[in-house]
Write a structure and sequence with these properties.
Radius of gyration: 40 Å
Mean pLDDT: 79
Number of strands: 32
Distance between the termini: 178 Å
Strand order of the largest sheet: 1-21-20-19-18
Strand content: 25-35%
């Protein structure tokens, strides 16, 4: 009997185990791939985060640099303009009020239509002055002596002394409204500065009348003014404004301004103003940077050819500009903006001569050869707090000329065609100082000592003293 064959149990078990091993190996390999992919993804993500962090840090560094630059610019701004923090805040507040700022109105009606002079609309980026001119600036010279002489004669009242300075009074073939008399004082009136007809700037000590320095300008100067940081001078023939050191008379820089004829400043202000043919400017006297440029437009004639005076009060709070018929008042805000406030009553006369302002800024006058309408040959004196009508009528006689207030005595100096007069505080002539004989007066400036003044005429520049012997004692000694 044959035996039935049995299946090979060992071979079947061995094949199943091999399949399981392969499956496990494949699973492990897949797990490794997944793990590797995860690790690679984590590394890539970490790298991207590091890149973003680096970019953020870079941006923050750039932002810090910008902040530092802005802080440096603010510091430089404060250094250049030398203003207090309170003034800076006022300027910044003003800059934010563009919509509330009155608009400049140009009209042939004249100064009364110029509502604001140098407002936010006319501000410009500060421009540097010309520091290296094509022709070198002249060098100042030391003088250190008195150069005048006494010129008393029969046409001068007894007891009055006249000390004439040996300078040409007026440039040849030159004419300007208001006459030629570029003269100004330092704050406190300790020093006198004038430019004679030979275009020489001279510096004097007011107390002893000693001329200490001079500067040969070499060109006509129509006006000089004293600011808180030095002298400014208008030079129309060269089309420029010069800034000059008041102590040494050295020229610091120049600013181009075509047809510059008028300058105005105050010993209390670091800014000054100048008027040219087509524009008026406001500039920082210390740095020379032009801050505002006001196009003159149709008021050109009123701010240039027809201006008979442009003065800033000693406290720097008001400006007065005169045309042919009236004196116009502006309020000075933030040391530069000029807002129109009003004008004097019209003189309604002919042959306008010049504008005068008292040394304390409390009185103004506009004289005319024809006097004032319904007032005859006289000059109306206006208190600056009440401009609608003259507070005082000065009866000068035929063809009024200059007027000046003696703050020490209260008297008033004035002239007509033939006489130099002293009037009492009520405006009545009390003494004829001298016979003028048609020698047209350009300006009279009183000195703080009282009863002493400088008179500038077309023929000479002289110092007058009404107290007998006092001026001679100063010049010649006791």
């Amino acid at each position: 009997m044959s035996e039935t064959p049995q299946p090979d149990i060992e071979e079947t078990g061995s094949s199943g185990a091999g399949f399981l091993a392969v499956f496990i190996a494949v699973a492990l390999f897949a797990a490794c791939l997944i793990l590797a992919a995860g690790l690679i993804g984590a590394v890539v993500y970490a790298g991207m985060q590091r890149i973003k962090t680096a970019e953020t840090l870079k941006d923050m560094e750039a932002l810090h640099q910008q902040i530092e630059q802005l802080e440096a610019q603010v510091a430089e701004y404060q250094r250049r303009y030398s203003v207090s923090e309170q003034q800076m805040q006022a300027i910044e507040q003003q800059a934010t009020k563009r919509a509330d700022t009155p608009t400049i109105q140009f009209d042939t009606g004249g100064l009364s239509k110029l509502t604001v002079l140098f407002d936010d609309q006319t501000r410009v980026d500060p421009s540097p002055p010309i520091t290296t001119p094509a022709v070198p600036f002249p060098e100042p010279e030391t003088v250190g002596k008195r150069t005048g002489r006494f010129m008393n004669s029969g046409h001068i009242a007894p007891g009055v002394d006249r000390y004439e300075l040996p300078y040409q009074a007026k440039p040849q073939r030159f004419h300007t409204n208001g006459g030629y008399s570029p003269l100004t004082f330092s704050e406190g009136f300790h020093r006198l500065f004038l430019v004679d007809g030979n275009t020489v700037l001279r510096s004097f000590n007011v107390n002893d009348l000693m001329e200490d320095r001079k500067l040969v300008l070499g060109t006509v100067c129509t006006e000089i003014a004293m600011s808180a940081t030095g002298l400014v001078a208008a030079l129309p023939n060269t089309g420029s404004v010069w800034a000059i050191d008041a102590d040494t008379l050295a020229v610091r820089y120049e600013i181009e301004l075509a047809g510059a004829t008028r300058v105005a400043a105050s010993p209390r202000l670091g800014l000054a103003f100048a008027v040219g043919e087509t524009e008026a400017i406001a500039f920082n006297v210390r740095s020379g940077e032009v801050l505002y440029r006001q196009p003159l437009g149709n008021v050109k004639d009123y701010l240039n050819r027809n201006v008979y005076g442009f003065h800033i009060t000693p406290d720097g709070k008001h400006a007065y500009i005169a045309n042919r018929n009236a004196v116009h008042k502006f309020k000075v805000i933030d040391g530069v903006r000029m807002v129109y406030e009003g004008k004097t009553a019209d003189i309604n006369s002919s042959n306008t001569q010049m504008m005068s302002m008292s040394r304390d800024g409390n009185w103004v006058a506009l004289s005319a050869g024809g006097g004032i309408r319904r007032g005859g040959y006289a000059i109306g004196l206006f208190n600056t707090d009440k401009l609608d009508t003259p507070s005082l009528i000065l009866q000068t006689g035929a063809y009024p000329g200059c007027v000046e207030w003696d703050l020490k005595t209260g008297n008033i100096f004035a002239n007509n065609h033939d006489e130099l007069l002293v009037c009492n505080p009520r405006g009545h002539p009390i003494k004829t100082i001298a016979r003028m004989r048609g020698n047209r007066c350009q300006q009279i400036i009183s000195l703080p000592i009282g009863d002493r003044f400088i008179m500038w005429t077309e023929q000479n520049i002289s110092i007058w003293d009404l107290q007998p012997g006092r001026l001679r004692e100063l010049i010649n000694g006791p």
